[in-house]
Amino acid sequence: MMELTAKLATVGDFLGGGCGRAPAVGDVLAFSGTSRVDRFIQEATRSGISHVAVLIEPEPGAPLSVLEATGAGVTVTPLAQSLGEYQRDHTCFYLPLDQAFSQSMVPALLAAYYAENAKDRYNYAGVAAAGLYDLRRLREHLGHHFDVEGLADWFNDAGQRFWEGLCGLDGKYKRLFCSQLVTAALLAAQLRLPGPPEAGLVVPVEVCRFGIYAGAYQLNGEPVAEPFRVAGLA
After folding, report:
1. Hey, what's the torsion of the CAs at 110, 74, 36, 144, to 10 degrees?
2. What is the mean pLDDT of each run of 10 residues along the chain (234 residues)?
3. Among 69, 32, 66, which residue's Cα sits nearest to residue 49?
4. Cis upstream peptide for 196 (omega within 30°)
5. Which residue(s) pair with 69 in the sheet?
6. Where exactly are the structural domains of the chain?
7. What is the pTM for the complete model shown?
8. Which fold is adopted by the domain 7-218?
9. β partners of residue 92
10. 37, 60, 91, 126: least buried by Cβ within 10 Å?
11. SS3 letters for 186-204?
């Protein structure tokens, strides 16, 4: 994993190619927010990042879009529209892939991954049952830096009952699966992620620490000194 600091830029800079290069397929967006869901994820992971997404071309030649897991399921949204919505109540960060990693991926496979998992076809209940929120494994994975006790009150079941109960509280909790989606999509596109990581155990801030980026840019809000820091980690 790597620690990144973020240079200050604007959404306009980013869309115009002023953040090192033009945005491209496989680049990652990260977000810090203030909603109940955002605060819960940030507190649980001892970090300032609550959501991540990846850029794709849904079809050959189509404009860049944002692939993410949201309350609406697995969706794609045109890039400018997505950022316009997020910057209202989130601090947005852009993480362009390093050239070597960008060249190793197959963009068409990223689009195919979306097609296979679009909307509610993504197996959210199966992911939970497979151990995405297996507290013992997460404890081992993240050590004392993960608020296992706080999560236990929320994630005390698995499978369909778990998912139906959680979404009954707030459908936006599908965003809890965003980091697994991004990790699995990048792996499906043959991006050579160091490790590689076990997608089901990746939390949002870890996507920002994969060590595959050419840099990082904060696109709005007050400057954040260490946006991808995990409390307690060097």
Report:
1. -50
2. 79 96 97 86 86 94 93 91 95 96 94 90 62 50 52 47 52 73 95 87 90 96 92 68
3. 32
4. yes
5. 74
6. 7-218
7. 0.84
8. endopeptidase fold (from Nostoc punctiforme) (3.90.1720)
9. 31
10. 60
11. HHHCCCCCCCCCCHHHCCH
